[in-house]
Amino acid sequence: MKAAVLHAPYDVRFEERPEPKIEQPTDAILRLSATCVCGSDLWPYRGANVINSPTTMGHEYCGVVEEVGTGVTSVKPGQFVIGGFAFSDNTCPNCLSGFQSGCLHGGFFNTAQAPMLRIPQADGTLVPTSGKPSRGMIPSMLTLSDVMGTGWFAAEAANVKPGNTVVVVGDGAVGLLGALAAKIMRAERIIAMSRHETRQELARNFGATDIVTERGEEGVARIKELTGGLGADCVLECVGTPESMKQALGSARRGGYVSYVGVPHGVSLDAQQLFFTHVHLHGGPAPVRRFLPKLINLVEEGEIDPGKVFDLTLPLDQVAEGYRAMDERRAIKTLLQP
Predict the structure, then answer these.
(1) How many other β-carbons are positioned within 10 Å of the β-carbon of residue 11?
(2) How many CB atoms lie within 10 A of CB 314?
(3) Which of 16, 83, 88, 143 could pair covalently with 100 via S-S, beta carbons 3.0-4.6 A apart?
(4) pTM for the full model?
(5) For the chain, which ranges sit under pLDDT 70?
(6) Do 217 and 248 fall within a single domain?
């Protein structure tokens, strides 16, 4: 089969790779219905994460079970399933506490931009849908593998409650879906920080009540102005840069909550400054598996349509253009069809 391979910064190729096979009794093999390019894939694509040899790419997926190992009992061939970007046994102490992305026997996918995918720890990783989703529902199902699950975790980690004022820092797919999650959690006011009209429109579609275009100190000042000088109850940091983290912390009220789900690059915190804010800080790789049953149900019931974040759809063999479009901000998120 052919799959996406990153050879060097800005050099993604679609080339021959071995077809995945069952290696352990706990494995499953999926034939993917859709995969995509993630904003976090742009870090190695741009050279921010060094790669020393050709590297397979991709960690978001949904599809139909093709084959299972002899130890797999929870899914069977023919079922449509979704799993998180991290695989997990869902039985270790970390999993049982709700942090499957920190599973003692788990890991992270990096081979999903391909037509087929091996799933280790299939029983603890995969969740079947109630039936095979319609073609139009597949983009939304795909988001549950990462960006919708990560946006949901961002809102939960920021302790979003009914009636809260929420600020979302970042207008990529995760930030936009963080706004959607905050809406489902009944936040009263959702302030999206964005300078891009198409993303602002989608943020409003997902539930944003206000748009702030300013950044840095001006952005923080605007948030304070909108909140009567207090700052927001909850802030979702969905980028991972020093500037975005500083803006997020500055936008929170005393004793407020800040989540961070953007993969940090170059971020450092002033502990003494943080100490006097009383801000609660929580984040990390989203434990998507914890949320999958609920999110699948929300999609199946028509309560959410997170697939709207895909504004470019390409055949899988055009994966390099998918990366270019997102890098150049011509696309929010690229869906790839195997």
Answers:
(1) 12
(2) 18
(3) 88
(4) 0.96
(5) none
(6) yes
